[in-house]
Specification:
This protein has 99 residues and is an alpha+beta fold. The protein is 37% helix and 36% strand. The longest helix is centred in the C-terminal third of the chain and has 17 residues, at 82-98.
């Protein structure tokens, strides 16, 4: 499943001519393109789908939605377990070194 998830903008920078942000989705942090919302600011919330910020959202709505997604297990489904992903990456790196 691929959800549109609300997130809070932590940082904004231009990368290779594209306005990008670091966005927090209830503890999961991802890079997001801001080309559709060029006036979005640090601290604001947006609905993000497949790496693009699509619509500005007020903080209360964002928090309620994130809480509901968490309760339903949808954040885990969408983003996976970051600890599990890190462990898998470390294991893969060890196996590569052993070869």
């Amino acid at each position: 499943m691929c959800l549109a998830v609300p997130g809070r903008v932590l940082e904004i920078a231009e990368r290779d001519g594209t306005r990008m942000a670091v966005v927090d989705f209830g503890g999961v942090v991802k890079d997001v393109c801001l080309e559709y919302l060029p006036d979005l600011k640090v601290g604001e919330y947006a609905i993000v789908h497949v790496g693009f910020a699509l619509q500005r959202l007020d903080e209360e709505s964002a928090r309620r939605t994130l809480q509901l997604f968490e309760e339903l297990g949808l954040l885990q489904e969408e983003f996976g377990d970051p600890w599990e992903a890190a462990a898998a990456a470390a294991s893969s790196a060890r196996q590569e070194e052993e070869r």
